[in-house]
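Um, can you check?
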Amino acid sequence: MEYNSKTKISVSGSAHIPHWHNPDSDRSVINEGEGPYVFDENGKTYLDFVSSLYCVNAGHDNTRIIDAVTEQLQRIPYVSSGKDNDTRTALSNKLADVAPGDLSDVVFSVSGSEANELAVQIAREKQDASKVLTRWCSYHGSTYGAGALTGDPDTRNAVETHAATTGSVRFLPPKGDNAPFDADSPADLAKKAADHVEFVIRNEGPDSVAALLIEPVAGSSGAYTAPPGYFERLREICDDYDVLLIADEVITGFGRCGKMFGMQTEDVTPDMITFAKGVTSSYAPLGGVIMRPEVGETARSGTSIGQTFAGHPAACAAGLAAIEEYQDGLIENVQELAPVLEAQLEELASHREEISKVRGRGFHWSIVVENPETGEPYKNSWVDGEDIENPVDDVAEAAKDRGLLVGMGRPDYQLIVCPPLCIDEAQIHDAVETLDSAFSAVFD
């Protein structure tokens, strides 16, 4: 069969096995996109309010990024990751320019999982210590090393069924569903949660702890933000005990939270930032680590490992163009419309008794769904059996039937709303109205 852009290939009988595969689910075939919209094999239009996988920040047809990749491919399509290349160097310098504080050294990877593994490897070498602290419920990837760092038990248990890596220590998050800290105020919560992290470091032995790895805003685990003062106190604790603070910005980076990096919304500079996803608006795979120079010196002194496609020139060209897009109005659009999105979601929650709360920052939000009669989730797949029906799944499916794509959170009693940075106010209204209709279809 001759293939062209109009050829329709049925999923039935396909050799492809998707990631996060559920053989009982209805597989979508997405073949085209335009701005914040995608189109399936039958031409049906969907408003993509999950940015495909929290990553297509600039929308699906950004010509600046497409042209930059095309130009790079025409010049030279690939250069070994062990050599220098002008586009690779340009993106490194650009990342150092837009990163907070004195973060200035860049090492590339291919994915976010590998970026987190790379950061941990460098941190352990720099600190001559093995342990890395991550919070319960976090998500840092699903390769063996990143899966061990991940606090999401569903992912971690799947990865570690037959083998596990060592050196990961968990701490409790400052807040979330069934928050463990009994606090009288946000300031009290920030103190108690940070004191708990200090307790964990002291009991593990400070000399054995290389780094603390944390998302500025929780990613797929629920988009919850830390109470004011929490990150400032974490920075102090890490400094007091000589522990590196690593910000996992795979989701929160590149405008998602209203600034170039999520940690800039906390006004705290980490020692290292890991990135992927939005760096190229996911037009090409790319990840990496941005570090303070004294941390980067560990890598500059010599390395004996690498990845073939780390810092691929075509991906670096996409990254340069994507950052230009973010600086040329897209981050400003998030700053302008984030209050509109928040207000619309709060209004939805105010008249839907099944929605217990919404939370998030910028263009990254979670809608938490609970049984109003019990105050508990209808289902939590981390603890409940497969035979229990989950109406939150049904809401996501009803939204999809009505032309809106949203994500399922971890755990799955929440929906994730994470639109491209290029949406407008009318599209926000359309999305929330569609969500309202989807909730009505399931619960009314």
Notes: Residues 1-6 have pLDDT under 50 and may be disordered. The CA atoms of residues 154 and 382 lie 6 Å apart. The longest strand covers residues 355-361. Residues 313-351 form the longest helix (39 residues).
